[in-house]
Specification:
With 469 residues, the protein is mainly beta. It has five helices and 28 strands.
């Protein structure tokens, strides 16, 4: 574990050694016959319902210790607060939950006094556990409470430092609204993944140029109808996207994409420099490409298709080995970074590219995990259970930030928590024309559907970025 503090004498505060003590304690308990009862008291009761849920905290010591670390399932990552009292960390369980057990895994900087509280609205809180004599370490608390939100409210520190938790696990049951399955109407059936190898075309793509237009703590795919339930997202394209977004609202909304026919919602976690939002400046490039060898088999997205790319709970390894990985975070001459670089040359910008899955199951517009209806090609061919080839979206984002990057992080946590969402709001005819001309046609098109290397092929859209009538 990374050492991060110094005492007044200048010596470093060493990582807590919590491995040896439990082993010694277990041996002693076994000698006096108490081992079985201790293990039984620590056994989880109920289902783990906090994993990968949205988390907010009263403060962060730095971007290296994000709030989301307590629900990522990684025992080596942690949240750390500012060095003051009180502090809190709060989890949105996503629905009405019955909580039966809480597990806190403290780093050396623990709370000597704290409460576990639940709330239906993150405003009115009920205490379901309270202590003023905590000694830190791993604590398993049998509790009883209900609410959508749960938080640990710390009121007294056990050390001179802030508060620091590796894990905040909540067990019980939760009732989520809806089944999460949205069916395509009509579904696309009878498709066999294409293994055809068409004539070579180095490019088969077009661009969407869209600018950021608002920031909200909403996610209409993951938390539909639940305003404020998510970490901050930066929204591009459709100007009306929020927690209440539907297919109809997208079509009724405006857009900051160059093509008026693209009213899709595009969003990603907000980049922060400390507490200051850093938004992409100007239009950002969103590529629509073929992800399969047979680029002639690619068909347009169905109306209302939506999905999540990447994961806010990804570890560094998961992020860098994900099929959507392109080149990681970049600035200046620094490439292939899994996390945001500690510094960037003056005048440079911070870039990220990430690719979406491009094979659809043909049945669902959405699924409970917002991913299962989509898949990445395998060796350039769609898998049999996701046989429909659709455009592969690639985000290419550029953020105007450089210099000291030590406080730069995503609203979802470290750089490897980068992810994005897509909710298709394209005009059907416009998208079909762009896919047919540029992807199926094997061209390298701009956002008007024009390939400057093959001008004789013409453009799809006119000078107003509209499909000619």
């Amino acid at each position: 574990m990374k050492v991060r503090h110094r005492t007044r004498s200048g010596s470093r505060r060493l990582p807590p050694r919590r491995t040896a003590l439990p082993v010694v304690l277990a041996l002693l308990l076994s000698l006096i016959g108490l081992g079985a009862s201790m293990a039984g008291a620590s056994a989880a009761t109920g289902t783990l319902i906090s994993q990968s849920r949205p988390v907010v905290a009263s403060s962060l010591e730095s971007a290296n210790f994000p709030a989301g670390a307590v629900v990522d399932g990684d025992p080596t990552t942690r949240w750390a607060s500012a060095w003051s009292d009180p502090q809190w960390i709060q989890i949105d369980l996503g629905g009405t939950a019955t909580v039966s057990q809480v597990e806190l895994d403290w780093e050396a900087a623990y709370a000597s006094a704290y409460q576990i509280q639940t709330s239906p609205d993150a405003s009115t809180w009920t205490s379901i556990y309270s202590t003023t004599t905590s000694t830190g370490g791993n604590q398993v608390l049998n509790v009883s409470g209900t609410g959508r939100y749960i938080r640990m409210l710390a009121t007294a520190r056990g050390t001179q430092y802030g508060y620091s938790l590796y894990e905040f696990k909540v067990y019980g049951s939760v009732t989520l609204s809806g089944t999460g399955y949205v069916l395509a109407d009509p579904p696309v059936t009878g498709v066999t993944p294409s293994t055809y190898v068409p004539p070579n075309a180095y490019f088969h793509e077009f661009q969407a140029q869209c600018s950021a237009n608002h920031v909200l703590p909403d996610d209409p795919i993951v938390f539909p109808g639940q305003p404020g339930a998510s970490h901050l997202h930066t929204f591009m394209g459709n100007t009306s996207t929020n927690a209440a977004t539907t297919e109809a609202s997208l079509q009724a909304g405006g857009t900051t994409c160059m093509a008026p026919g693209d009213k899709s919602g595009y969003w990603m976690p907000t980049l922060l420099n400390g507490t200051t939002q850093v938004l992409p400046v100007g239009t950002q490039t969103i590529y629509y490409k073929s992800g399969v060898i047979d680029y002639t088999s690619v068909r347009p997205f169905p109306t209302g298709l939506r999905f999540l790319v990447g994961s806010p709970a990804a570890t560094a390894t998961q992020f860098s080995t994900d099929p959507g990985w392109v080149s990681g975070w970049e600035c200046g001459n620094s490439y292939g970074n899994i996390d945001i670089p500690p510094s960037c040359p003056a005048g440079s910008e911070l870039d990220i590219r990430y690719q979406a899955p491009s094979c659809w199951d043909g049945i669902h517009l959405d699924t409970p995990d917002h991913k299962s209806h989509m898949a990445y090609p395998i060796n350039g061919v769609c898998p049999a259970d996701h046989p429909v080839a659709v455009p592969m979206i690639e985000f290419k984002m550029a953020f105007p930030v450089n210099g000291d990057m030590s406080q730069v992080h995503l609203s979802s946590g470290r750089g490897f928590s980068f992810h994005y969402d897509f909710y298709n709001g394209w005009d059907t005819a416009t998208l079909a024309a762009m896919v047919t001309h540029c992807i199926v046609g094997g061209l390298q098109c701009d956002d008007r559907g024009y390939d400057q290397n093959q001008p004789q092929k013409g453009a799809v859209l006119n000078d107003q970025y509209l499909l000619p009538s």
